[in-house]
Amino acid sequence: xxxxxxxxxxxxxxxxxxxxxxxxxxxxxxxxxxxxxxxxxxxxxxxxxxxxxxxxxxxxxxxxxxxxxxxxxxxxxxxxxxxxxxxxxxxxxxxxxxxxxxxxxxxxxxxxxxxxxxxxxxxxxxxxxxxxxxxxxxxxxxxxxxxxxxxxxxxxxxxxxxxxxxxxxxxxxxxxxxxx
Length: 180
Fold this sequence. Notes:
Layout: E1 21-22, H1 24-29, E2 33-39, E3 56-65, E4 71-84, E5 91-105, H2 108-113, E6 119-122, E7 128-129, H3 130-141, H4 154-165, H5 172-179
Parallel strand pairs: 5-6
Antiparallel strand pairs: 1-7, 2-3, 3-4, 4-5
């Protein structure tokens, strides 16, 4: 963002239909911010990933130009999602916070010239869906393997008990060789 990063104008622009298209370049020219909340069940691509599709996501999209003239979108999302723990297969609540800086590119040359601190966002058309942009960033923020904390996971406790009960048998390998 330019200068101190302050935003001169703050308006709530999210239409009643969040999938409606927005024009990032126009919004950046007037240094706009879009903020609000969306229901988790409105994100189609999340449906097969989550254990429960309840709750809401809070977001903020800030549009500006950097010193080099690149259109930049700061996308901040906060939510809590319920997944299946990959250790114990019980529900696990995972807090998701993402703060991404997206550099908008219109063509291959702009794409390659983006500063390294920006995630690239290639505009194929003049407008994009705000909800799809938010969903993309949410999907990127989801952990690969959602897990309980080790001290909270049932599977970890069971494995610890099994390992504690197992007596070490240092000559088991020799016994196996002797049988051959």
